[in-house]
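Q: Convert this sequence to structure tokens.
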Amino acid sequence: MQAKKHPIFITNSLTGKKELFKPLVDDYVGMYVCGPTVYSDVHLGNVRTFLTFDVISRYFRYLGYKVRYVRNITDVGHLENDADEGEDKIAKKARLQQLEPMEIVQKYTVGFHEVLNQFNILSPSIEPTASGHIVEQINLTKTLLEKGFAYEVNGSVYFDVKKYNGLHDYGILSKRNIEDLMDSGRALDSQDEKREKIDFALWKKASPSHIMRWPSLWGDGFPGWHLECTAMSTKYLGETFDIHGGGMDLKFPHHECEIAQATALTGKPPVNYWIHSNMLTVDGQKMSKSLGNSFLPHELFTGTHKLLDKGYSPMTVRFFMLQSNYSSTLDFSNEALQAAEKGFKRISSALAVIKKLKYETASSLNHELDSDLNRLSSDCLTNMSDDFNTAKTLAVLFEMSSRINDFKSGIKRVSEVTRDTFENFKASYVGFMEEVLGLTDEVENNNKLLVGTINVLIALRKRAREDKNFPLSDKIRDDLKALGVQLMDGKDGEMNYSID
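A:
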């Protein structure tokens, strides 16, 4: 379904105000989201961020926009303290496990995709890697040097924040004052290369032991963490694009440095709307490994974490996360997850019902019911267009599920409303559940998976019989029978089945 365009209001982190979204190009949205650093398993904080922008991109597409969604993979240049010192996190993991860095990258990139697939988070339009854009990062560093916003010291290149702030506003996103930043923290010592402690690396000279390194105009080295996103966002979305997003923790210094680099390069702001998702807590405490209250997704699904009473399905967890606005803190607890499980079953059951409902020839028109269904369909658009408020949208879907259950029980009849009203109501419920919020019917999906698996095994058994591998053929039949699936051999090698 393509819905009618609806005005969208976005809370812009840059201004702190809710603003009417105006795309740079009609019917097109360019969106960049900072992706993972692939050196460890993806945690739930990551999942919430990518779920947020999955829903945002889904909603724009639902309204008929063409969306170019770019989400990068950080596979180089991310140092231990997220600044300009320490060992590259990926290289460190590779050294400890005696692997090539790109083996680490591949392992955790695959794991990242597997986790997001479980949550029904769609792939971005483009997923570039930092290591695949070294040339672009070197060229941007060269340009910043030529423009006087950077300086080179012993093979490393640093961005001159003080020079930049004389012409622009460093701290415009995080609302930090440059004088306060220069006064806080440790002072520069004799070993520091930077002119000011707030300067940040665009390119770092590689030590003899550094594994990940590339040749450059300044010698072998590797790019700074902040530069990669500027290089990839401008390459695929242009010098100025619509939306840039990420977790709240990236606002400073990462996104602040991105703004400075890009503005220094072009003289204009790189992004019109900044969106940041908030953190996760557990029973009111910040989620962290040190407190022992952080969850990996598989621990939520299996219920193996010490703080969980049981496991929860991926769709239940997705539904739970959508019950809170992306900009609000989200608190995990057993009680909240159990309530989410019940709530999701309710609206998921209604989804299965509405899909099967057919319009009946109108009898006497119930004007109040007809008006109510139209209001609910409209409210879905209104709430999602209000800063992508999934919580309020779900509240409307719960109301709609009550009407659907009334149709199912016979309390109300489909024939009491007009065909247009019913079809719009049905399309809205299915569209917002599946296309916008990405909530799928798990029973239906499990049935499809079961049928697909049985058909694969039947095909394998057919091949075994053709090859006269009767022991394997018999084993497949017997194993399926033990699981309650009875195979029935027909003529010409055809096979049917029944499930006990």
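The chain has a mean pLDDT of 91.
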